[in-house]
Every structure is written in structure tokens, then in C-alpha cells.
Design brief:
Elements lengths: L15 E3 L3 E5 L3 E6 L4 E2 L2 E2 L7 H16 L5 E3 L7 H4 L2 H4 L3 E5 L2 E2 L2 E8 L3 H9 L1 E2 L2 E2 L9 E7 L2 E2 L11 H8 L1 H24 L2 E12 L5 E4 L8 E5 L15 H8 L14 H19 L5
Antiparallel strand pairs: 1-2, 2-3, 3-7, 4-5, 6-7, 8-14, 9-12, 9-13, 9-14, 10-11, 14-15, 14-16
Helix pairs in contact: 1-8, 5-6, 7-8
Length: 295
């Protein structure tokens, strides 16, 4: 894997949509998803990228799709299968690019939580509920829940997703579809959490996205069980009552909190130490999860 930083890609001739991290090209009946090295925090894209991040996230998504054996949208990561504009520029696309089926995206984020943190912790402190689900009193931050819960959220183009109840999800997309997505999301989370535990990691929560293919089948899409869509903690450093260190951009967020950045104007440039330490967190997560055998 190379460690060149790719902040933006260019494939002339195809409609392009740029997200916070991904460049998505429309090939008509298929899509090309390129995971760049861009990184965002507090709803801002940072001016610096994290070298190799896009390749790491792509490799981990491919690992999980193979391991889960769940119907999914991935067709190929071999540039030989792509149009020539992608094949001719491996410096932009190699190792970070997926050719996928185009689907009708289900407009709900499917979140499974096994631990109480983030927006769930905030909701719990206010009401002892998360997405309408009652929880026991007396839980601490980062506590393991009595059993994992399904907490859907609306998909936001900008800003934060908003947690909703299962009933609101069912109203939006239909009861049968909501039940299928809940059950399949929880099954993926349970299997992945067990696997992560065998490799010395706690999978605290994860966000999955689903879409319907041209046969009407609901399949997994987008990134799957990466540190950008999931919260991984080192099991040996887990202590209820405080937020454990995580294998994602928390190191970057923590540094930003020490600056005088107001979060309402363009963010500051990142010091080289922060870039490298953040890159190392991503590398360590991928290495732990993809090495064979339990720790």
C-alpha cells in the first residue's frame, strides 16, 4: 500500500458527487466509489489528509464483506475491470476504489449499539431512553448495555444525522422493510462484535447502510464496519465511566479541542505529528482486525 495522500480524484466524462470523504462517479448502471484520504471533524473537512486512510478503509470494507458473506453491492476492486480513465491513473485510484452495483438507497442510517456513548449517552442522560428504547437507570458513560439495541437515524446531507424511533423508521419506509433492516443490522453487529472481541477489540457501535438492487433485494452498501462508521475500543483499556480511546479520528478531535478554533470557520492546518498519529490509529485497527487468529 502506498502512503501518498489523495485529497481529490478526477475522472473526466462521468458525473461526480463529492462527499466528505468519498468521490462517487456515476457509470449509469454502476457506481465507482473512491475513498480519498480526506478526513472530517465537527462537520468540517480538514485541510490536510491522512496518508493511506482511503486504502485502509477500502481494504477493511472488502474484508468484512467477504467475511460476513452478506449480499452486497461490491463488484470489483481490480482496476482492470474499470473504464480506462480509472485504469490509466493508478496513482489516484489503486487500492481505494470500488466498482459497485447502483441501488435505490434506503434513506435511513441503521445503527446498532452495544455500549452507551455518543448521541446515545446524551439521550440517556436526558430521558433514560435511546431512540425511544427505555434503559435501566444508573448506567455510566461507555457502559455495556444489557443487550444490543437498534437505533436508526435520518440521513443528513450536511451536519449530524438525527436519531429517530423504530416506529418513525417504519412509517418512513414501511414496517416490513424496517423489521428486515433491524434484524439484519443486529445480526451483522452481533457477529462482527464477537469477531472483534476475539481480536482484542470492542465494537461499541456501528452504522450500516442498505439499498435495493434491480432485483428488489436489500443489500449492504457503502463502507462496512470501518473505524469511520464504527466505534472500536481496545478491550484491555476499556473502563466504564469514561470514553475509552478509539481507533478512529478521536485523536484528531481531541487535538482540535486544544486549539482556539471556533468550529464555525475553516479549520486550522494539522501538525505532522497529528497526521501521523491519526494514520497509525487507522492502521492499527485494520491490522488487528484482518490478521488471522485471535489475539
Amino acid at each position: 500500500m502506498t502512503c501518498e495522500t489523495v485529497l481529490q480524484t478526477n475522472a473526466p466524462g462521468f458525473p461526480l458527487r463529492r462527499g466528505k470523504v468519498r468521490d462517487v462517479y456515476d457509470l449509469g448502471d454502476r457506481l465507482v466509489i473512491v475513498t480519498t484520504d480526506r478526513i472530517s471533524a465537527f462537520d468540517w473537512i480538514m485541510p490536510n489528509g491522512i496518508p493511506g486512510k482511503g486504502q485502509l478503509l477500502t481494504s477493511l470494507t472488502c474484508f468484512w464483506l467477504h467475511w460476513l458473506n452478506e449480499p452486497h453491492h461490491l463488484l470489483s476492486t481490480d482496476l482492470a475491470d474499470f473504464p480506462s480513465v480509472f485504469r490509466d491513473h493508478p496513482e489516484q485510484f489503486a487500492g481505494r476504489t470500488m466498482l459497485v452495483k447502483k441501488t435505490q438507497v434506503v434513506p435511513v442510517e441503521c445503527v446498532a449499539r452495544g455500549y452507551l456513548l455518543g448521541s446515545g449517552w446524551k439521550e440517556y442522560r436526558a430521558s433514560h431512553r435511546v431512540c425511544g428504547i427505555p434503559l435501566p437507570e444508573g448506567l455510566q458513560e461507555a457502559d455495556r448495555l444489557p443487550s444490543p439495541i437498534f437505533t436508526p437515524a435520518t440521513k443528513a446531507e450536511h451536519g449530524h444525522d438525527e436519531n429517530i424511533s423504530f416506529e418513525a423508521m417504519a412509517t418512513a419506509i414501511g414496517q416490513d422493510t424496517a423489521e428486515e433492516l433491524r434484524d439484519r443490522t443486529m445480526a451483522v453487529y452481533t457477529r462482527a462484535a464477537d469477531y472483534a472481541q476475539q481480536h482484542g477489540l470492542i465494537l461499541a457501535d456501528t452504522k450500516l447502510e442498505w439499498g435495493r438492487d434491480d432485483q428488489g433485494q436489500i443489500i449492504l452498501i457503502d463502507e462496512v464496519l470501518t473505524p469511520d462508521s464504527s466505534r472500536y475500543w481496545p478491550a484491555d483499556r476499556y473502563r466504564p465511566g469514561s470514553s475509552p480511546p478509539s481507533f478512529d479520528k478521536q485523536y484528531l478531535r481531541d487535538w482540535l479541542e486544544t486549539t482556539n478554533w471556533d468550529k464555525n470557520s475553516p479549520p486550522p492546518g494539522l501538525p505532522e505529528e497529528i497526521i501521523q498519529q491519526t494514520a497509525e490509529k487507522y492502521r492499527e485497527a485494520v491490522q488487528r482486525l484482518t490478521r488471522s487468529g485471535p489475539r
